[in-house]
User: Fold this.
Amino acid sequence: AARAPASLAGTTVAVALARVGQRGAACARFWHPLAIATLNETPEVAAAAPFAAVLRKAFFAGARAARFALARVPLSELYTTDARRTLEQAGGTVVTGAAAATLALGRDGVEALVLRDGRRVEADAVVLAVPVAALLRLVPAPLRDAHPFRSLAAVGTSPIVSVHLWLDRPVAWGAPFLGLLGGRAQWLFDCGPAAGGGHRVASVTSGARFWDDAGDDEIAAEVLADAATVLPAVQAARVRRTLVIRERHATLSLTPAADAARPGVETPLPNLFLAGDWIQTGLPATIESAVLSGRAAADRALEAVASLARPVRVPSRGREAAPAT
Ligand SMILES: Cc1cc2nc3c(=O)[nH]c(=O)nc-3n(C[C@H](O)[C@H](O)[C@H](O)COP(=O)(O)OP(=O)(O)OC[C@H]3O[C@@H](n4cnc5c(N)ncnc54)[C@H](O)[C@@H]3O)c2cc1C
Assistant:
């Protein structure tokens, strides 16, 4: 499974594993849970190439690379607070709660971003870092029919379902989380004592298409049964409250065809760039992929701005860009 991605083009994880003799318990208890967790898609459908990239990074890059990382604060706090401070310290402005509606195009590329409230933000370069569906809605029609936008229209999405269970007693098992095999709940997190007493646990299920039409009560009951199978304390507990969160379009559905359709950060317009976990970074649609794409898009945007034939302010580097010669 750690072969060069070129030999894996068009191949699913299940086929690639079978080719290297992996089957039965090795698949059910190791390869498939790992693939579903990292690709958010079932091995029969998921592309093998990004899975090989995960294996190379996690298992062939030193012991530190294989460590689990568990955020202790909400992701918005983990990422956006520092990012905002850095941008503002460099002279940038961060505007939130302002949906982009479309792009105003001119002869030489994008002239401005048009917000849904009608405001127009003039720009030397634009990086669109929105999910694919949002991207296709805000790119003007003629451009939408060009590469890479046209091929993105066929890319589907895959859901992730999280279930929170408030139990009437402590059920801690001596670790922050637990991998579950054989059921539908895949990971169980110990969220500790609940605010009003009792204990909260939360499950995560990737590639959870089998729950598309299920009711919340049915989903919560299945998760509770999966947890009770391995945790005797859960069997004895009474459920006080449940919360099912469905992210129906959590990531793109990373089939071999979708992986082939993932574009780079460039577009046909010289000052319009793309970022997001769905960009072709070699990795699955993860936070790491989003970060890599963002850095690449920012670099290309700075190059585009620096090549303009007039002096412009480049806030994130805190200097005036030299006009093109
Ligand atoms: C439940 C769940 C668990 C996950 N767990 C993990 C994990 O453990 N590890 C991991 O690496 N990844 C995980 N992921 C995937 C991870 O969240 C994504 O890969 C990552 O958030 C992608 O980042 P992004 O910047 O590409 O897109 P997003 O985080 O989706 O950001 C896109 C932003 O664009 C905004 N937007 C959309 N339309 C517009 C518009 N018209 N104008 C302005 N803004 C707009 C959205 O509001 C959003 O804030 C998980 C995802 C889910 C749903």
Remarks:
- The first helix runs from residue 13 to 19.
- The radius of gyration is 23 Å.
- The longest strand covers residues 239-252.
